[in-house]
Write a structure and sequence with these properties.
TIM Barrel
Length: 291
């Protein structure tokens, strides 16, 4: 079912159309074809699409980068997000592996015209040197800028960057204009960050926003809750209208990412998954967003 588009475009993040896979399940690779996923996202009304590294590798093998770009263009997907780089701050074998992923992501970002690259913090919350991280982030942001993309770091409440404030301190210390934040509202809510704090984030430092919903009570660990029990927008406890208003106050106008991760969502056929994710997110964005 094709819905009326919004003036503020929506982006289907990688997990929203990935089917029966999730972070922490092997390499996270989807069993679905990129064609099926792109067609489902475009038919639902999305104007953006997210792809995790394992799926990028598989899709390039199947279609080539030129074929992938054509698939996105044919389905009206003009905002591309590539993820998820970790260990960009370290050294040794972990850094060697990270740098190989980095090269692939940068090469693909340039060929595909990606809007931004998403990177992560230290999920294990180990001791870290803030100045060294700022330098590494600035260097990586410069590389992203060199291929025409921005760089966004996603803070996570169980990591060394737990809140939007922690993330903002890093990107401001790094100082590169191409660097900024991915603000996932699941993480801001679980870190108990009020919407008013989001309104204070400089608009130039917001690279991406991700919408979802959840129950008020966390079940299991934060990681388990975020990958198994997210709800569709408007079907949980989050004050999404207040959060959206706060983000709009920064000047943010999209694309709004929609990241639905749950045991329930993974069982939906991809067309249904894309359609319900788009419809519910467009609903909380409100009638003012509809053309």
């Amino acid at each position: 079912m094709q819905h009326a588009p919004t003036t503020e475009d929506l982006l289907a993040t990688c997990w929203t159309t990935a089917g029966d896979t999730a972070p922490g399940q092997g390499d996270g690779r989807s069993a679905l074809t990129l064609r099926d996923r792109a067609e489902a996202a475009g038919a639902a009304g999305f104007r953006g699409f997210g792809l995790v590294y394992a799926d990028l590798v598989e899709a390039e093998r199947t279609y080539g980068l030129a074929g992938m770009r054509s698939l996105f263009e044919d389905n009206g997907l003009v905002h591309l997000e590539l993820e998820f780089l970790t260990d960009w701050w370290t050294d040794g074998d972990r850094r060697t592996a990270s740098d190989a992923v980095r090269r692939d992501l940068l090469r693909a970002a340039e060929a595909l015209g990606a809007r931004h690259l998403k990177v992560g913090p230290d999920h294990e919350d180990r001791p870290w040197d803030a100045d060294a991280w700022a330098g590494e982030f600035a260097a990586l942001a410069a590389q992203a800028d060199g291929v025409g993309a921005r760089l966004g770091i996603e803070f996570l409440p169980w990591s060394n960057l737990k809140t939007v404030h922690d993330g903002l301190r890093l990107v401001e210390a790094a100082g590169h204009p191409a660097g900024g934040l991915i603000i996932d509202v699941w993480h801001t809510e679980r870190a108990h960050t009020p919407p008013a704090d989001l309104a204070g984030v400089p608009g130039a430092r917001i690279v991406g926003v991700e919408l979802s919903d959840a129950d008020s009570r966390v079940e299991g660990t934060l990681f388990e809750d975020t990958v198994r029990r997210r709800r569709l927008c408007g079907e949980g406890s989050f004050d999404l209208p207040g959060i959206i208003a706060a983000l709009r106050a920064t000047g943010w106008s999209g694309p709004w990412g929609v990241e639905i991760l749950s045991d329930t969502h993974r069982t939906r056929p991809v067309r249904e998954a894309a359609e319900v994710a788009y419809r519910t997110a467009a609903g909380v964005l409100g009638p003012a967003a509809v053309r």
